[in-house]
Amino acid sequence: MKPSVNILLSGGGTGGHIYPAVAIANELKARHPEAEFLFVGANGRMEMEKIPQLGYKIEGLNISGIQRSLTLKNLSFPFKLLQSLYRAGKILRKFRPNVVIGTGGYASGPTLYMASLKNIPSLIQEQNSYPGITNKLLAKKAEKICVAYDGLEKYFPKEKMIKTGNPVRQDLLDIESKRAEGLAHFGLDPKKTTIAVIGGSLGAKRINEMIAQHLETLLDKGLQVLWQTGKLYIDRFEALGKKEGVVMRAFIQRMDLFYAAADVLISRAGAGTISELCIVGKPVLFIPSPNVAEDHQTKNALSVVNEDAALMIKESELESFEEVLLGIVGDPEKRKDLSENIKKLALPDATRRIADEVEKIVK
Predict the structure, then answer these.
(1) What are phi and psi of 183, to 5 degrees?
(2) Whole-model pTM?
(3) Are 147 and 268 members of one domain?
């Protein structure tokens, strides 16, 4: 790579877009300590707080998504988009990046579009098995598209695609050795089977309600529940967290220990989470969020379920939850098969491979 290089990254809205961007930046920074990094995010979204905490500079665009229902907010979208395109252009002129990396989220679209107009090379990191409309539009101008799933040539130019997987936390690579530490960290009983529940960084309303509904049954069966409610829901369910056999957190700082303590996981099906779960290699019951663009969480989950590597229940079919979960818990052979099959889907060196592609572009 050139002796002095400027790298601009754009991704945010959720941890699923922020974390891959930071992982790529960290890998490139380790290789090229002299490089300059700048993030572009959406004002008011979590990246504006998280990225500076992680030691990187960030600029914000005044952009938000289109609401899927008819709402007055949609009327302001064209104005916000034009404003964001203008602001992204100014940021690019000032920072003069050698490459722009997009990992998804509201700010990624205007930033990569303006980069293409200025002939600045770009790389798209598509996390999902079903790409959003923004990345489909941007793909024509991108130099390289790093994907995590097979079969995306339906949406992207085949010659630009490379299957790298999604970047994951490096501390997940040796979960087995951390089991005792994980149980101790959360104050769990090593003799009991642990059901670990995670609904994404903000939490999942329907999953929380369902766990609350079935909690007594799970505890009566001698199980213990490690329950991440998300900060939006902790107050509502806090009283249940005081029950014996329940450990409740709004947010999990040590995801490696969370996964290490788990015997069976109940999870949403965001692309980043799925990539982590493949590396962790524990039995998983997916409950995809139906409230995401193009129902992509269901498509993500099916890519694992179709390999006999996890089970899935749709939110509309949760009446079968107890039967399915207890079926996994009570069948050690099934749990072993799910663990072995999901591990086969892991791509642990994704971050390194994406960084390799960025270096090729800059050279």
Answers:
(1) -65, -40
(2) 0.86
(3) no
The alpha carbon dihedral of 316, 13, 73, 133 has a sign of: negative
In sequence order, the 6+-apart residues with CB closer than 8 A to the CB of 138 are 102, 108, 109, 112, 113, 116, 122, 124
Asked if residue 10 has pLDDT above 70, the reply is: yes
Q: Can you give the pLDDT at residue 133?
A: 85
Q: Which residues pair with 10 in a beta bridge?
A: 40, 102
Specify whether 358 is located in the same domain as 288: no
Q: Are residues 234 and 206 in the same domain?
A: yes
Whose tokens are 């939110």? That residue is 315
pLDDT at 73: 67
- CATH at residue 250: 3.40.50.2000
Q: How many domains does the chain have?
A: 2
Owning domain of residue 223: 171-343
| 3-state secondary structure string across 236-288 | HHHHHHHCCCEEEECCCCCHHHHHHHCCEEEECCCHHHHHHHHHHCCCEEECC
- pLDDT tens-digit profile of 211-267? 999 999 999 999 999 999 998 999 999 999 999 999 999 999 999 999 999 999 999
The verdict on residue 1 lying in a domain is no
Same domain, 22 and 136: yes
* Among the listed residues 238, 242, 234, 169, the one whose alpha carbon sits nearest the alpha carbon of residue 203: 234
Three-state secondary-structure class, residue 61:
strand
pLDDT of 67 higher than 60: no
